Amino acid sequence: MTSVAALIKTIRPQQWVKNVFVAAPLVFSRHLTDPAQVARTAIAVLAFCLLSGAVYTYNDVRDADADRAHPKKKLRPIAAGALSERQALIAAVVLAVVALGACAALDWTLALIASGYLVQNVAYSIWLKHIAFVDVA
């Protein structure tokens, strides 16, 4: 498997369909026929696809040792050695920077939301997934 193929597998494009929810405001605002709004929304959806790919990649680097001991996860590119942890981390940073840059170019509010999404998911990878219950009250 080439590094490019390994990276594509790692960023999990099959999971990106969930990012279509970013387009909900376009649908509910009834701007589906406005080419400028459709283009802006497509960029926002793509940015969230890149962000989620960055998160999957970062999480796989963090979990590589545990994944190597798992019957199915050991086949993931980073755990299997098809993509080095260094290459994966560089890719994750590039994906995140490009995505956040695209969001910032569209709207600063979108960039803040996307940054929050990224921070929340990195916090999950590092810390939150090890907490059995989070009490916010």
Number of helices: 7
The largest sheet is: none
Count of individual beta strands: 0
Low-confidence stretches: none
Structural class: mainly alpha
Radius of gyration: 17 Å
Rounded mean pLDDT score: 93
Task: Give the amount of beta strand, in percent.
Answer: under 5%
State the helical fraction.
Answer: 55-70%
Apparent shape: globular
Alpha carbon gap, first and last residue: 48 Å
H/E topology pattern: HHHHHHH
Question: What's the structural blueprint in terms of helices and strands?
Answer:
Elements: H1 3-10, H2 24-28, H3 35-62, H4 64-68, H5 77-80, H6 85-106, H7 108-126
Précis, in short:
66% of the residues lie in helices and 0% in strands. The chain contains seven helices and no strands. The chain is globular, with a radius of gyration of 17 Å.
Q: What characteristics describe this protein?
A:
mainly alpha, globular, 137 residues
Structural features, described:
With 137 residues, this protein is mainly α. Helices cover 66% and strands 0% of the residues. It contains seven helices and no strands. Helix 3 (35-62) runs parallel beside helix 7 (108-126). The model has no long low-confidence stretch (mean pLDDT 93).
